[in-house]
Amino acid sequence: MSQGFAHSQEQLRALAQTVLDHAAAKGASGCEVDVSEGLGQSVSVRRQEVETIEYNRDKGLGITVYIGQRRGHASSSDFSPSAVRASVEAALSIARFTAEDDCAGLPEARLLAKKSMDLDLYHPWEIPVESAIDIARHCEQAAFDVSPMVKNSEGASVSAQTAHFISANSLGFMGGFATSRHYVSCSVIAGEGDEMQRDDWYVTRRNADDLPDAKRIGDYAARRALSRLGARKLKTRKCPVVFEAPLAAGLIGSFVHAVSGGALYRKTSFLLDSLGQKIFPDFVQISERPHVRGGFASSPFDDDGVATHDRDVVKNGVLQGYFLSTYSARKLGMQTTGNAGGSHNLIVQSGRHDLKGLMREMGTGLLVTELLGQGVNYVTGDYSRGAAGYWVEKGQIAYPVEEITIAGNLREMLRGIVSIGNDIEARGSKQVGSILVDRMTIAGT
Q1: pLDDT tens per residue, range 320-337
Q2: Among 41, 81, 152, 200, which one is least packed by beta carbons within 10 Å?
Q3: C-alpha–C-alpha distance, residues 87 and 81, integer Å
């Protein structure tokens, strides 16, 4: 597959400048623009037969204009000069009929990113479709080879994706870069009749050279599915719970949502006015590192063009800072933290144990490896999710469990973190190992 973009960075910059110039000529007091292009290839096989081959190529132009403190937005996938002018004028037309918002507007010029930096985010994977199919087949076959009890497959996939963009505004900011993201995944079904279980595994990397052998991914997916055979229900009880690393990232994500600007100024967060308060135990340290080379959420600037900086978010369990965009910061009477668009590489300091060590520390309790549903109330912090995993006794897995619900309150869960593992599985913007929480309610039979 050719990884060549249809437009160069210089062409995207010229297009962004055209938008800014046309907006100014038509009377906009301010303008910001994002121009992007992405392309990729994905293949999937099921039972060794090719199921899908997909090629994607897309582009987009997003324009926001201001007339004083009236805001208008328009977008287009057409980069022709006439379409670009029409999009600018559409945004201006919307702005003229929009109510004034005293928090609307561009960031302060002094906060904008002034320099570019190479964060090692772009590693195109020029893999022929035939080779991608072979990798997917080897991945799936490795799963079948683990045991004759692996009876079926939901497929194995290989994907290679690249993108680049330019963001600019009328205060003189213009920046952008290219990124890549590639993954291999496998999902299989073990057992037969009424006793069947599925599980999956995937690995994603910026650089395809860093992907593990696809056979290892298939093998691990199969072993996860097999380990769930014979799952039982639990009687309702209260006990400690370990969240496996990929799910622990979701737990930290719930914390991030609760201390993000949108939830705070709308007063829809259980962590209102929590700055400077103790949210976690003393040993919990969470830092934001936007400039990690190769990081999945690395960037020299946020979606507003504001420069990003390293910072401590939680220190010794105490919340040091919110996650604010320019707009949400103004709504709260504060200054942006450079988080328009989300967090940048949140790193939760690990403890000394891996997952097995956490289970030994827990002794008896529940290891959760799958969550179902979206039962989180961010206003109250109430947490209730369908779950599956393993019952642990004396630090060892005793048997798999299913059809249970775990429930608690996020404020109490965060305070009740006993230990954080070092088994980090880097997949998104949050880097955290498995998390042991002291006590939750398990609803079962």
Answers
A1: 999 999 999 999 999 999
A2: 81
A3: 10
